[in-house]
Design goal:
elongated; 3 strands; alpha+beta
Length: 94
């Protein structure tokens, strides 16, 4: 279910604080990396250009935030399941 438009997008205050602090510390050094467990947070314009390490259940997946990702949720870019293969007849050489 979508969040009400009058409420606006949800972004974890803790995550937003981490991003702002990391940008201030990085300054001219460039690359900013922030770890987060908040998969439900919406990507906002302040996140563009940084790398967020999003937790997928057992490890952190690096996600470089671009302009076209604004408005999506962080969890969309860190898959939680790994597809192995369908069970079926294996092709063998004869």
């Amino acid at each position: 279910m979508a969040r009400s438009l009058k409420k606006g997008p949800y972004c974890s205050p803790k995550l937003l604080k981490k991003v702002v602090n990391a940008r201030d510390k990085a300054g001219a050094r460039g690359r900013v990396v922030v770890e987060t467990y908040s998969r439900r947070s919406t990507i906002i314009p302040e996140f563009v250009g940084i790398t967020l390490m999003v937790h997928c259940g057992n490890k952190f997946i690096p996600v470089l935030i671009g302009e076209n990702m604004v408005g999506h949720k962080l969890g969309e870019f860190a898959a939680t399941r790994t597809f192995r293969s369908h069970s079926g007849d294996k092709k063998t050489k004869k």
